[in-house]
Amino acid sequence: MTNENRKQNIADELARAAQALQAARALLAAGLHNDAVSRAYYGVLHLLRAALLTKGVEPRTHGGAIHLYNVELVRVGLVPATHNRVLAGLQRARELADYDAAVVFTEEDARAALADAEVVSAAIREMLARDGWLAS
What we know:
- The protein has one domain (3-130): Four Helix Bundle (Hemerythrin (Met), subunit A) (Up-down Bundle), CATH 1.20.120.
- 75% of the residues lie in helices and 0% in strands.
- It has helices at residues 3-29, 33-53, 62-74, 83-99, 107-130.
């Protein structure tokens, strides 16, 4: 992957992340809590992928993205270690929201998932800006 391709792929992932987080907010406002939880997770997943692309890493699975994020960014101190718990919680909530019809998330649950996603988002964006990967 060339540096220009990498920059474009990072920009694409950031755009998808912003769109997913915007959708999560809209779904929350519409009372579609399970869908809001799912989109909050996807917003974070796209941010993880963007962050990993800066290291030349392209995960193939959701679990792989979270694992590599921990290895490449959390363990070396580039982002807070508290993300481990947050990411695991968001991933599990997304799986329940998408695949378990018996699970109904409340407005409070959806707000908490979105808040968690926004915390991780801010930390990743801060790292990307610090390292010169965000377009000015």
